[in-house]
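Hi, can you check this record?
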Amino acid sequence: MSEAPKSSALKPAGLPDRKTEDNAPVNVDAILQSILGRGGERFGMGAAVLRGERIIAQGAAGVRKGGTAQRITLDDRFLLASCTKAMTATLVAMLVEEGKLNWTTTLGELFADTVKPMHPAWEKVTLRQVLAHRAGLRFDPDGLARVFKVFRAPYASLRSAPELMRPPRARLGTLPQQRLEIARQALSRPPGIPPDTKYWYSNVGYILAGAVLEHLTGRAWEDLMRERLFQPLGISTGGFGQPGTAGKTDQPWGHSSFVGKPIDPGSPAAQFPLYYGPAGLAHMTIADWAKFVGVHLRGDPANPHGQAALLKLDTFAELHAVAPTTPYSTGWVMRGITRLATGDAAPAVTYRAGWFISTSSWAKGTRPGDTGRCLWHGGSNGISHTVMCIAPEIDLAVLVACNRGLDMAIWKTRGCTRRA
């Protein structure tokens, strides 16, 4: 990536130097196809580039299902996976602005009447720490075994191991009841690590945040997403869970890592339990996703064209604030992940409310004090992959979704961010 030009529109790399008609987005299908190469016969991707809240380039390439001729289109819906976390944090911020809770509200205060007994170590943990993955909560409600099953399930037929394809352990009740039960289970046990000592990525933390939203509003997280995000932003394709109809290729199918096996959207291998919603189950088209990302791009305090939408600018500053860096932020793991997501290995990485925050050379603006601030996140359910990256100093954002697991998808999405 390179520094943004001074013109009002960014010309994606590899396109002829021409103006768009009526501010229509530049079509980048050919660029995406070149990134996919022969992989476009086995899976595909969609992508968009934003200048502010406007899409200036977009495209789709490849196929919905390997071995078929049905092409991915810009009307297709992709699972956002963990890129959903920023949406959940945005809902939390709305309740903070309404005075229904505070960033320093503790789990002891939030669940005093609903989680009994609560292990004493959780009582002083704040909501801010939960959203920054600094609470010490475990990674997954059912432990790492569930995660391994999800990533191994696509290969069950290859290993004659049908038990891997079985649905996860059933949880009774409505989705809010299930999330509250997960909160009870998590908070009745001691933390895996002492709270607020280091970054510890946790899907449980965001499921718990969803339970907080539901407890305070009396509304399911899914309803809050529709009423407070989808409708105000004009997101008409938003939904939850793996998109598509079982047995049909009306939406992109996921494809397993390494062997690229197509996974029917109706199969257990394609499904995370719906109680995961706040941690990573929103789906929508690329264009609708861009409506949400554009709000955060313009809301960031480093954006010279900053404007408030949905939330106050001070609230965006809180959501995007630089938190304590993780112990791994200068190590090869986080540097490698950052390079894959943004195209540049930052000297340090931090996390806040659904966003990793780092610096990248291509994201540096021209004003004194600009550092190349970059906010990004990736998501995967083992058979698809998404990346969103915003560079507020140059008023630019890139979104990429790929219907393949973490192996080739990482390299293809990285290719998109580097070409933006």
